[in-house]
Amino acid sequence: MVKLEDTNTKNNRNEILEEGIKKGIFGSIKGREIDRVDYDRWMGGPRGPEKITFKDGSAVIFKCDIRHYWMADNPDTAIREAIVYQIDKVVGLGLVPKTMVIDDTVGNVRYDGSVQEWIKDARDGYQIEKFTNEERKDFERLKVFDFVIGNSDRHLGNVLFTGDDKLHAIDNNACLIIDKNEDILSFSDSVIIFFSRNVIHDMRHIVELIERFYANKDTILNLIDKYIHDNTELAKVMVESRINYLYNMLKRDKPFPRKYREWRKGLEEEVQNILRRKK
Ligand SMILES: Nc1ncnc2c1ncn2[C@@H]1O[C@H](COP(=O)(O)OP(=O)(O)O)[C@@H](O)[C@H]1O
Ligand SMILES: [Mg+2]
Fold first, then answer.
1. Which of 32, 39, 151, 203 has the most CB atoms lying inside 10 A of its own CB?
2. What Gene3D superfamilies does the annotation carry (predicted)?
3. Which residues have CB under 8 Å from 275's CB, separation 6+?
4. How confident is the model at residue 221 (pLDDT cuts 50, 70, 90)?
5. What's the 3-state SS for 85-153?
6. Is the CB of 158 under 6 A from ligand 1?
7. Torsion, Cα of 121, 126, 127, 133 (10° steps)
8. Can you give the pLDDT at residue 42?
9. Is 170 near ligand 1, meaning CB less than 6 Å away?
10. Residue 71: which of 89, 44, 37 has the closest Cα?
11. Which residue has the CA at smallest separation from atom 14 of ligand 1?
12. Mutation choice for ligand 1 from 50, 160, 170, CB with most ligand atoms inside 8 A
């Protein structure tokens, strides 16, 4: 059974656990018969990602909770994988494969971490020649999504393509503040390049996504508040300030700034607004 951290009272913990199971944030692979497990060990890592194939032919990628094997004060990356899937659902992005946190013992092997549905016959972004139109749109949506959740690991190896106009965003644990010393205003400049070289206001798929983030802000902040138990407040301020910034820029009907320091200034203002309101 999945354990919640002791920052919550016992009753509260049970409630969160129950709700988490209902939402599919916590689950189990116990009822499924394993056919085989394939893995590459990381050099120096505790336990690399493992592909678990079940007897029914389906498969998942399992990534262990490194805190149980390595350093206890590492962030909880498994819950981040699962919450990013939930956020994807809330805003209707539909790019993150189904992901949940498990803690099962099968035979005498413990599976404690995240499992994500395995995408069959996929090629990653390094292996394709060019995007189809639909893939390009999804890739652009993903840029907005990654910016809001503060994902620092979206290289082309973490984007899979299945040749049916569909993109899959995998490996989503380096987000929602994985380090308390992380600068919550920092992000890659590819975000600015994208926003300033396009007329975002005329890109329906981007406008829609920003509006959905804004409309569902409370639901998203609530998910982070309940389930992300480390760096929680920082993660909330980061996500909220980024949603507010994008939304307010959109409503202003002016182009997005081209300069990094203008973005930082704008984000910093949103952060200050949030902190002031909280006092
Ligand atoms: N959902 C998935 N479907 C198919 N392949 C996956 C999936 N998740 C991961 N993989 C494969 O496993 C590799 C390692 O998983 P990833 O989540 O990227 O972990 P790491 O943190 O080691 O980069 C990926 O580069 C990809 O080849
Ligand atoms: Mg990866």
1. 151
2. Phosphatidylinositol 3-/4-kinase, catalytic domain
3. 237
4. very high
5. HHHHHHCCCCCCCCEEEEEEEECCEEEEEEEEECCCCCEECCCCCCCCHHHHHHHHHHHHHHHHHCCCC
6. yes
7. 80
8. 58
9. yes
10. 44
11. 49
12. 170
CA atoms of 48 and 63, how far apart (whole Å): 7
Residue 212 — pLDDT band, cuts 50, 70, 90? very high
What pLDDT digit, counting tens, does each position of 82-101 carry?
Answer: 999 999 999 999 999 999 99
C-alpha span between 155 and 88 (Å, rounded): 18
Ligand 2 centroid–CA 199 distance in Å is 31
Provide the 10 A C-beta neighbour count for residue 117: 17
pLDDT at 11 over 60: yes
Q: Count how many residues are written for the chain.
A: 279
What pLDDT is attached to residue 150? Answer: 97
Q: Which has the closest alpha carbon to 120: 64, 162, 182?
A: 162
Cα–Cα distance for residue pair 162/151, rounded to 1 Å: 23
Q: Is there an atom of ligand 1 within 6 Å of 61 CB?
A: yes
Q: Which ligand is nearest to the CA of 61?
A: 1
Average pLDDT value for the chain: 93
- Using a 6 Å cutoff on CB, does residue 45 contact ligand 1? no
Least confident range from 64-68, 78-82, 111-115, 199-203: namely: 64-68
Other beta carbons within 10 Å of 65:
23
